């Protein structure tokens, strides 16, 4: 970190690169994992939803523990870096066992390896997020740091959407009898099963696993080797129980966490039903990969726009604008009928454009909240703040996923069936449209009166800097 707090572009870009593999694993967990385990592995959908929720609940223990330890633990290697290095192997082995499971597995396999993978994910993401918040103490520099990371997240999501489109095209060629050639033989070896390449969700998850195997170690190595950690700002150890009591009195943090919880729950709810909606209501299964390719491609283009809007009207109001536009686009999908590919693609792209704002604006706001806590407490609890935020995000993802799949099972929708009744399809349509919109509007109401503006954050920052100078003079 420079003296002025202004960061080099190379530092911001290298640090943000870990967002790419993190997105590649997060996207299929919500989008492709449920239909794969329900339709191809044959697990009960309601039981699977319960397992995925339970696996996320373990973060209630691991998130604050690892967040606090990464604040305290000082080594020659740094505070944050050791956790990333230790978390990578756990993430990789868990991903492989979940995305490329052996034959004959049951619900216990999914539970064990999901819990292990989430533990590794926590060890990587929480110290990594806290590290990013500490790179600069300037309001808009933090927006650049978070926007870079979320830009790489969107690139990862774009790759995660491109890969299924390619694998599905190769699978279709293989099924049509084009089984020769180096490319096809390599695809069968890497993504196929029993010496064949299908067109289901199994090959899609396999290609995601290979992307993780390549990109996660590479990006973590680059960041650990090339980006310096900010020096610890407090020699006083943080009591995490005391820290939790302080968080209870932090109004902006409570509002931001509630906002994050609701919007992530809405996103997870919608994502878990998207494949089913496209497959059975709009009936465009062959174009699902293409739809996500467009969705995340447009999302990448939206990053500069939402950065600009956040600078002009404030981060929280830009976030509210994105929520409103997203809700309108999703409501429009209620009137679509089977085969209306172009209309659905347009509305899906509008939602993807707003997705960029959902990705980086709340986390950028969280970095500003850390300054408020520092001004009040004279301590630096960045890891604890990001631990609580990460825990809220993960629990929201699990609740959205579990609630959507549970309600889908409750209305009698069986993912293993090819044909569904008109009432089942209407129920799926209602859940896909109304569920996320209600949650988005709730997040809108919470975010609109968010109090920590750019002007207030600048006053807090100047206050903290003046106190540092006074302490230095006194010393």
From TrEMBL:
<dbReference type="InterPro" id="IPR036259">
    <property type="entry name" value="MFS_trans_sf"/>
</dbReference>
<keyword id="KW-0812">Transmembrane</keyword>
<feature type="transmembrane region" description="Helical">
    <location>
        <begin position="83"/>
        <end position="101"/>
    </location>
</feature>
<feature type="transmembrane region" description="Helical">
    <location>
        <begin position="107"/>
        <end position="131"/>
    </location>
</feature>
<feature type="transmembrane region" description="Helical">
    <location>
        <begin position="45"/>
        <end position="62"/>
    </location>
</feature>
<dbReference type="GO" id="GO:0008643">
    <property type="term" value="P:carbohydrate transport"/>
</dbReference>
<keyword id="KW-1133">Transmembrane helix</keyword>
<feature type="transmembrane region" description="Helical">
    <location>
        <begin position="12"/>
        <end position="33"/>
    </location>
</feature>
<feature type="transmembrane region" description="Helical">
    <location>
        <begin position="430"/>
        <end position="450"/>
    </location>
</feature>
<dbReference type="Pfam" id="PF13347">
    <property type="entry name" value="MFS_2"/>
</dbReference>
<keyword id="KW-0472">Membrane</keyword>
<dbReference type="InterPro" id="IPR039672">
    <property type="entry name" value="MFS_2"/>
</dbReference>
<protein>
    <recommendedName>
        <fullName>Major facilitator superfamily (MFS) profile domain-containing protein</fullName>
    </recommendedName>
</protein>
<dbReference type="GO" id="GO:0005886">
    <property type="term" value="C:plasma membrane"/>
</dbReference>
<feature type="transmembrane region" description="Helical">
    <location>
        <begin position="152"/>
        <end position="174"/>
    </location>
</feature>
<feature type="transmembrane region" description="Helical">
    <location>
        <begin position="290"/>
        <end position="309"/>
    </location>
</feature>
<feature type="transmembrane region" description="Helical">
    <location>
        <begin position="257"/>
        <end position="278"/>
    </location>
</feature>
<feature type="transmembrane region" description="Helical">
    <location>
        <begin position="342"/>
        <end position="363"/>
    </location>
</feature>
<feature type="transmembrane region" description="Helical">
    <location>
        <begin position="199"/>
        <end position="224"/>
    </location>
</feature>
<dbReference type="GO" id="GO:0015293">
    <property type="term" value="F:symporter activity"/>
</dbReference>
<feature type="transmembrane region" description="Helical">
    <location>
        <begin position="384"/>
        <end position="410"/>
    </location>
</feature>
<feature type="transmembrane region" description="Helical">
    <location>
        <begin position="318"/>
        <end position="336"/>
    </location>
</feature>
